[in-house]
């Protein structure tokens, strides 16, 4: 399921990241790697705030849909 549909507060594991090279590189720099634990902290209008590697990151709906958990 895409990260944008993940429940709030549940620790999930990143299974796959879809997208072009630029989007993949951007997400990798943020710490979003396959196998990494990620938690949705809050959602607002399709955008999500996630906790990954001890940091909180805001992702728009398009980026959140690229991350499969």
What would a concise description of this structure say?
The model has no long low-confidence stretch (mean pLDDT 93). 22% of the residues lie in helices and 38% in strands.
Verbal overview:
- This protein has 69 residues and is α+β, with helices and mostly antiparallel strands.
- The protein is built from two helices and six strands.
- The chain has helices spanning 21-29, 61-66; strands spanning 11-13, 16-17, 37-44, 47-52, 55-59, 67-68.
- A four-stranded antiparallel sheet has the order 1-3-4-5.
- A hairpin with a 2-residue loop joins strand 4 and strand 5.
- The radius of gyration is 10 Å and the shape is globular.
Strand order across the biggest sheet? 1-3-4-5
User: Hey, roughly how much beta strand do the residues contain?
Assistant: 35-45%
Secondary-structure-based class equals: alpha+beta
- Quantity of strands, as a count: 6
Global Rg: 10 Å
N-to-C order of helices and strands: EEHEEEHE
- Number of distinct helices: 2
Low-confidence stretches: none
Can you give the helix content as a percent range? Answer: 10-25%
Biggest sheet details: 4 strands, antiparallel
Mean pLDDT: 93
N-end to C-end Cα span = 6 Å
Shape designation: globular
